Amino acid sequence: MKRTLEGVVVDTIQGDIANQTDMDAVVNAANAELRTGGGVAGALYKMAGPDLAEAGKRFAPISPGKAVITPAFKLPNDYVIHCLDPVYGRDKPEGELLQRCYVEALKQAEEKEVESIAFPSISTGAFGYPLKEAIPIVLNTVLNEITGLKHVKHIRFVLFSKSDLKAYESYWNKALKER
Ligand code: AR6
């Protein structure tokens, strides 16, 4: 799916967040200590090399809903924006915390004058946020924020599985048609 909303290109693809060669910034589904982990964090730290964990040390620990920005080192991007997304059923209110991650990530991107940013489906893996509950929050947050963006001109959602991509696209196509 590719659309232009308020002058910002929004696309969804199936892929690996560590291989977004045409994007200025990628978002990490971080842990509080800003260390490597599984899933998204594992892929990004592996590709970036040990400097990424070193760069995160001065911010750690971060709290849920918070985002910080570091260089991307050996990744094919300029920046990694690390969000501590909520653990479903533990960090409350989870919807608000998930929303805050997207708002803060976009804010960090704007501050660095980033033009393109790629998000994985944060919180919906190890942290257990049901994808179908997360999708409307992500869409509404992005629609709310998009009008205020000055530098970001391209937002990408990178879904790991075909079924996640399908779920995103069917909800978004329907919701955007109804606008
Ligand atoms: N590229 C894009 N998406 C991916 C990739 C990848 N390389 N690998 C997994 N996904 P998760 P969370 C998908 O668990 O739920 C970490 O270990 C995955 O299928 O990475 O926010 C951290 O250290 C799922 O749909 O993030 C934290 O402790 C989505 O990305 C914790 O897990 C998010 O999965 C964060 O958990």
3D architecture notes:
InterPro entries: Macro_dom, Macro_dom-like. Residues 1-176 form the Macro domain. This is O-acetyl-ADP-ribose deacetylase (Regulator of RNase III), contains Macro domain. This protein has one domain: Leucine Aminopeptidase, subunit E, domain 1. It is globular. It has a seven-stranded mixed beta sheet with strand order 1-2-7-6-3-5-4, sandwiched between helices. It is an alpha/beta fold and 179 residues long. The chain contains five helices and seven strands, in the order βββααββαβαβα. The protein has helices spanning 39-48, 51-56, 94-111, 131-146, 162-177, and strands at residues 2-5, 8-14, 25-29, 67-71, 79-83, 116-120, 154-159. α3 packs across α4 (131-146) and α4 packs across α5. Bound molecules: ligand AR6. Ligand AR6 binds at residues 16-18, 29, 31, 37-41, 43, 85, 120-127, 158, 160, 164.
SSE topology sketch:
Elements: E1 2-5, E2 8-14, E3 25-29, H1 39-48, H2 51-56, E4 67-71, E5 79-83, H3 94-111, E6 116-120, H4 131-146, E7 154-159, H5 162-177
Parallel strand pairs: 2-7, 3-5, 3-6, 6-7
Antiparallel strand pairs: 1-2, 4-5
Bound molecules: ligand AR6.
CATH class: Alpha Beta
Q: Tell me, what's the shape?
A: globular
Helix-residue proportion: 25-40%
In total, the number of strands is: 7
Give me the CATH architecture, please: 3-Layer(aba) Sandwich
Summing up helix and strand content along with how strands pair, one would put the structural category as alpha/beta
Strand content: 15-25%
CATH topology: Leucine Aminopeptidase, subunit E, domain 1
Largest sheet: 7 strands, mixed
| Parts with pLDDT < 50 across at least 5 consecutive residues | none
Number of helices: 5
Radius of gyration: 15 Å
Which molecules other than protein and nucleic acid are bound?
Answer: ligand AR6
User: How many domain units?
Assistant: 1
Distance between the termini: 17 Å
CATH superfamily heading: Leucine Aminopeptidase, subunit E, domain 1
Mean pLDDT: 97
**If strands are numbered along the chain, what order do they take across the biggest sheet?**
1-2-7-6-3-5-4
Query: What letter string, H or E per element, gives the SSE order?
Result: EEEHHEEHEHEH
